[in-house]
Amino acid sequence: MRFLIQFILLLKTYNKTNFFKYTYCEFTEVDNFEMPEKNYFKSKSNSLYYFTEDGVFRKSNHWGRVASCRWRLTTKSVYKNQQTILAFAQWKDFYHLNEKEKKFYISINFKTKKIKIKISATDKAPFLFTLSDAQKREKEIKHLFKQVKWAKHFDQNLEELRSIISMKLINSNLSLQQIKLNIKLGL
Q1: pTM confidence score
Q2: Which long-range contacts (CB under 8 A, 24 or more apart) does 51-56 make?
Q3: pLDDT tens for each residue of 19-44
């Protein structure tokens, strides 16, 4: 029965009547679109939505946790909180959000030090996390990349150490403390 429910949720199609209810989505910033003066929806929080057959444009100064949804924003430059951004997402990019389901994995580009949380359509993807666990690990990895103080207790090359710890964080349930302890003990 649970498999059937998951399958139905996977097939669920989103549109302007249901995209704002418990969904995860990644919006992409656009700069070649003018929001029409009419025919848009304005939310209570002053976000503007313009619906098309393919998806939705959203003009807003708040992203991330939006009511019952988790909407990420991919920008061309560094996003600062409360900065108004116009972004687009296709209907096919919306996914049902259940905080208990492990549907997310993390990818890392070590050259650019970019960390991305992605959703998996199958259980055969890399190690899967709940969204909140993936976000926690994303934050820990960003800290590993930005800070160096934590590495003074290790006798290894900093970049090599960052790589080892990050890969263990995205491919296991071990905590950051457990991973560091295992490295110190040579496990």
Answers
A1: 0.73
A2: 51/15, 51/16, 54/90, 54/91, 55/88, 55/89, 55/90, 55/91, 55/93, 56/16, 56/19, 56/88, 56/89, 56/91
A3: 999 999 999 999 888 888 888 999 99
